[in-house]
Structure prediction request, 119 residues.
Amino acid sequence: MPNYETVFILKPNLSSEKVDTVLTKTKGIITSNEGTIILSDSWGKRRLAYPVKKYKEGSYYLFHFSCDGKIVAELENFFRTSDSVIKYITIKLDKSLKKKTESKKEEKPAETDIKNEDN
Prediction:
């Protein structure tokens, strides 16, 4: 199955229960149709480059997943109809990108290996 990456931005003033509902629904759409979630990450609240729907900030979330193409359409339909989602984008990852992201995960240095050259 092909791999996809989706990033979506939620309204900054949502309660944690509503955020959990959106995340659970997103994971449910992917996994209920034989998809697998490779990575899910919260980037936290960030300032938007330009106002979107009168919001200057948003809470960013990233999902890497493997699924059939029909699931992507269902997922984007959920984002489009949800009033909690400000903006979203889904891209299909190349096989070469998949290998690069997997190798970066394995090569991540520990915090103790990082040295500050200024001191």
Remarks:
- The domain at 3-95 is CATH 3.30.70.60 (Alpha-Beta Plaits).
- Residues 16 and 97 are 33 Å apart (CA to CA).
